[in-house]
Amino acid sequence: MATGGPIMMVLVLGGGPDGEREVSVDSATRVARALERTQENDVRLEIIDKLSVDALRTIPGDVIIPMLHGPWGEGGALQDLLVADGRPFAGCLPGPARLAMDKVATKTIAAALEIPVTPTCVLNAADPVCPLPLPVVIKPIHEGSTLGLYVCRTHDDWLTAHDESARSRRACMIEPFIEGRELTLGVLDGEALPLIEITAAEGLYDYEAKYQRDDTSYLVNPDVPPSLAQSMSERAIALCDRLGVRHLARLDYILDADGTAWILEVNTTPGFTDHSLFPMAAAAATPGPDLDMPTLCSRLVNLALRDGNKSKTTETTLAGTQEESSS
User: Fold this and answer.
1) pLDDT at 98
2) DSSP annotation string for 159-228
């Protein structure tokens, strides 16, 4: 254990009730191990389900690093508990977390910032007619890791996906399917990390390709025009700022054959597994410190301590975004 400064207990939370629980446990475990390697503070790893604020307060820790992925852990509910708990924590406050988890709201705000977004419709369970030309994608509005995602290339695909999505009782959206290169861009404390291109060995970059297969390839700083990379970085920072995102996020895109980068979603608690893209990008960031995993995780602790439960100064509202886009 390092000496010379106050020793704190860093509480790393993982698990949760969402479909990405297994990934969350992996992320949290790796973050806890990385923090232990720094020998800067004591570390406690706690795997949770849903819990009350009273239960959270019984778990020791001076600062909290939540590594839960999905609607409950990443979409505002846990963040409400963290604010009520009162201890400093890394990541979004409740309002921005809810907003970023809502893919339709995120695309509405992105459009106001002149970031390319595709036409989007909300799935109507009572209407079997596809409102957009095929091929389309159906996916939950408040979900991640491609859970519940369907690519509909034919009318039969559409009918099957429509019925299964409607039975899930989750709010779902429909958007055009775009052929292209999958890119992701991390933002750490208001600064863009290097672009990464993802190439699945076959089919979609789905849950299996993300977390279970070893034949997905990742290319840091891929061959894209420098002007496009610069524009994507600037717009990603602007979108995170408008959403009110704190500390870290990962934005996912499709780059089409015409050179347009269409934003898909914003993830405010990106994965920290050995397959995850945010730590990969941070490790490749230059110039600057070597953001290996222990250094990156220590940075999250410091950001949490720096900001406590303070919100960003600019409040985000959809109404304000709509007013701006119509002016």
Assistant:
1) 97
2) HHHHHHHHHHT--EEEEE---SEEEEEEEETTEEEEEEEEE-SSS---HHHHHT-S--EEEES-S--HHH
Q: Which residue intervals of the chain bear CATH 3.30.470.20?
A: 100-116+179-312
Cα–Cα separations (whole angstroms), residue 5 to 1, 89, 172, 300, 303: 11, 20, 49, 18, 17
Residues in the chain: 327
Rounded-to-integer distance, Cα 282 and Cα 276, Å:
11
DSSP-derived 3-state class of residue 80: helix
State whether CATH 2.60.40.1510 applies to domain 121-176: no
More confident residue, 240 or 322: 240
72, two tokens? 């409950």
Q: For residue 65, which phi and psi values (nearest 5 degrees)?
A: -115, 100
The second-level CATH assignment, the architecture, of 100-116+179-312 is 2-Layer Sandwich (3.30)
Instruction: State both tokens at 188.
Output: 């750490």
Arch. (CATH architecture) of 9-91: 3-Layer(aba) Sandwich (3.40)
Q: Kindly report, as residue ranges, where domains of CATH 3.40.50.20 are found in the chain.
A: 9-91
Query: For 184-208, how does the pLDDT look when each residue is reduced to its tens digit (9 = 90+)?
Result: 999 999 999 999 999 987 565 444 5
Mean pLDDT for 127-147 is 91
Bridge partner list, 186 = 250
In angstroms, the CA 267 to CA 73 distance is 12
